[in-house]
Design goal:
Oligomer: heterodimer
Order of helices and strands of chain B: HHHHHHHEHEEHHHHEHHHH
Number of domains of chain B: 1
Distance between the termini of chain B: 15 Å
Largest interface: A-B, 27 and 23 residues
Structural class of chain A: alpha/beta
Structural class of chain B: mainly alpha
Number of helices of chain A: 8
Distance between the termini of chain A: 47 Å
Number of strands of chain A: 10
CATH class of chain A: Alpha Beta
Strand order of the largest sheet of chain B: 1-4
Number of helices of chain B: 16
Helix content of chain A: 25-40%
Largest sheet of chain B: 2 strands, antiparallel
CATH topology of chain A: Rossmann fold
Number of domains of chain A: 1
CATH architecture of chain B: Orthogonal Bundle
Largest sheet of chain A: 6 strands, mixed
Radius of gyration of chain A: 19 Å
Strand content of chain A: 15-25%
Strand order of the largest sheet of chain A: 6-7-8-3-9-10
Number of strands of chain B: 4
Order of helices and strands of chain A: EEEHEEHEHHHEHEHEEH
CATH superfamily of chain A: P-loop containing nucleotide triphosphate hydrolases
Helix content of chain B: over 70%
CATH architecture of chain A: 3-Layer(aba) Sandwich
Strand content of chain B: under 5%
């Protein structure tokens, strides 16, 4: 693996239209076709809601975007530049300022929070030693602002296993926020959260929009995505079946559309 | 007194402190029972000569276990590297070349272990069980089953450098200590070490946060190979001989030292300070029991008791809440729940 280059100067105003674009992407796991012929793009300042049933391929799609999985076929473009699939990885995605909050399992249970926040992007001194002091200081600062915390003795030293589900989600989001993503991918970020915390996540997504950045938002709760997304993309059985602009469909229509898809799927199975 | 309790809890969390306390208690105990042996410095110099190979091996294994992997082949790497060194000294009179090649050979076969585990995908317990036979078998073939006596190597500078004496102090203890300190920094302050901890904690998380898990695992096995070779150099030079089952007795002792030290068998958590204490406990119990006049037959039984006590102690320290609930459920079972403060 080639050493990752220093973070490229990525802020060239108006030099790109799409922060990320997939062209005819296929993904197969053995004999299972998880994604087929996916065309999908996210504008530079666009909130895209990604919806679909379990197994529709949402998580697979974002794993390709975040560099965890390499697509079987197709092309990926970041900032209108084609990315070399062999060089694309989580690290590369980070360098390109793409941050992902995965549905579950993006924090290591037994490790302290400060390690979880910086792993893969450690702050190191001149001789390659991790600057623990600085990492802890920043971590403590992030904790004070993080979603899902009520300030009860959780510090940078606490291990993830001490945290509630909402707090874990908050840490994962705080991590993505800290690294100032141009594209932030949220995979069901509200699952473990209380109602008041959900509002904070939605406010955070709106903040991403105002800051001129982009977001892919995966959510089961249609009301939430409908509220914040500029555009909704519906995935079904590994294909993009609808692409809906904001205002084109009311929440009720969207819901019946999803129910119809669900039933059609049941029919197909029967 | 919440303030006091929290400072007590903080003390327990200082790396390796509880097990170091156990080590000191054992020393005190032996001093009481066998003062003529344990109040003289000689016994400690003998420990410092005998602990280093064990410690170097245990420190390396600590890193691997932190990454959720295991190496059962290191005793055979000890034998293989020992043969390389002995052959070059004994037959070719080229001790320095022998030293370099012994270390290289150990690193290379360790790297091969890593390839088998990380690239081919064989679980490490199986892969290294197999290579334990392979490297050991090759050593027997190379050495034709012969032992080498290296009686006069104490005239060589290699010998003085690695296992000589400064006054009564065996030099190898400085090497082992230095290496362990380096490894502590590698584990706790370098990216590589942090990556190993994350791999051992949850390999899927490690991949998601961008750790190249295959490369890091391969490097960890290569490092273990290098350390096994280094332990072998210390052992061969100190004993001034080579035999082809050299190192075989270390497998269980090294694992015991690591676990007594508080490293989690489940990965993701490791204590090198604990490993140092664990290594001394293993060697000391052996010597101590003989010195106290108990028959040597007792050694393994006592090691077993200390081992179990240490593991239970670590469980209590790492999860006081869990341990408390367990205790409470026990008390409930025996009808002692009255007056329980919650």
């Amino acid at each position: 693996m080639p050493p990752s280059p220093p973070a490229a100067p990525v802020h060239e105003p108006d030099s790109f239209r799409h922060i990320v674009r997939l062209e005819r992407v296929d993904m197969t796991f053995g004999r299972v076709q998880a994604l087929s012929q996916i065309d999908f793009e996210v504008g530079r300042n666009e909130i895209v809601g990604l919806i679909g049933d379990n197994g529709a391929g949402k998580s697979t799609l974002i794993k390709i975007i975040s560099g965890v999985l390499r697509p079987t076929a197709g092309t990926v473009w970041v900032r209108d530049k084609r990315v070399d699939p062999s060089g694309y990885s989580v690290r590369r995605a980070h360098d390109l300022r793409i941050e992902t909050v995965h549905q579950a399992q993006s924090l290591a249970e037994k490790q302290p929070l400060w390690r979880n926040l910086f792993v893969g992007r450690q702050i190191v001194g001149r001789f390659g030693f991790i600057d623990v002091k600085q990492e802890k200081a920043i971590a403590d600062q992030l904790l004070r602002q993080a979603i899902g915390f009520r300030g009860h003795g959780i510090t940078a030293e606490s291990t993830v296993s001490d945290l509630s589900g909402g707090e874990r989600q908050g840490i994962a989001i705080a991590r993505a926020m800290h690294f100032r993503a141009d594209l932030i991918v949220l995979d069901e970020p509200t699952t473990a959260l209380a109602v008041s915390e959900v509002r904070k996540v939605l406010a955070f997504i709106e903040g991403v929009k105002t800051a001129g950045r982009a977001c892919i938002y995966i959510e089961h709760n249609l009301a939430h995505v409908h509220e914040v997304a500029d555009r909704l993309v519906i995935l079904d059985r590994g294909r993009v079946v609808r692409d809906i602009k904001q205002g084109e469909m009311t929440l009720a229509e969207l819901t019946s559309q999803m129910v119809a898809l669900h039933e059609e799927r049941g029919d197909a199975r029967a | 007194m919440p303030g006091r309790e929290s400072s007590c809890a903080r003390l327990l969390r200082v790396e390796g402190l509880p097990i170091t306390a156990v080590l000191l208690i054992l020393v005190a105990l032996f001093m009481l029972i066998a003062p003529e042996v344990f109040l003289s410095y000689r016994i400690y110099m003998s420990f410092l000569a005998n602990v280093p190979p064990l410690l170097v091996l245990a420190a390396g294994l600590t890193l691997l276990i932190a990454a959720g992997e295991i190496d059962l082949s290191f005793p055979s790497i000890v034998a293989l590297s020992g043969w390389v060194l002995a052959y070059f000294i004994h037959d070719l009179h080229a001790p320095w070349l022998g030293l370099v090649l012994a270390l290289a050979a150990g690193t290379f076969v360790g790297w091969l272990n890593g390839i088998l585990v990380a690239r081919v995908g064989i679980p490490s317990i199986i892969a290294t069980l197999a290579t334990q036979f392979l490297w050991g078998g090759l050593t027997t073939v190379f050495s034709q089953g012969l032992s080498y006596s290296l009686a006069d190597i104490d005239e060589l500078f290699v010998w003085t450098l690695f296992v000589g004496r400064i006054g009564p102090l065996p030099v190898q203890c400085l090497w082992a200590l230095g290496l362990t300190v380096c490894l502590w920094f590698v584990l706790n302050r370098r990216r590589f070490g942090e990556h190993l901890l994350f791999i051992g904690d949850n390999v899927k998380v490690a991949e998601i946060v961008g750790v190249n898990t295959r490369r890091e695992k391969t490097r960890a096995f290569a490092l273990m190979g290098f350390l096994a070779a280094f332990a072998s150099v210390l052992l061969t030079l100190e004993n001034q001989n080579f035999f082809n089952t050299q190192g075989a007795g270390y497998l269980l002792e090294v694992m015991a030292a690591v676990f007594i030290g508080g490293t989690s068998v489940f990965g993701g958590r490791a204590s090198l300070v604990g490993t140092v204490a664990g290594s001394f406990i293993i060697i000391m119990v052996e010597a101590g029991i003989v010195a106290t006049g108990l028959q040597g037959f007792w050694v393994r039984a006592v090691v077993g008791v200390v081992f179990l006590a240490a593991v239970v102690g670590h469980l209590l320290i790492q999860g006081p809440e869990k341990a408390r609930t367990r205790l409470r459920s026990l008390r409930g079972r025996f009808g002692l729940n009255q007056g329980d403060r919650t």
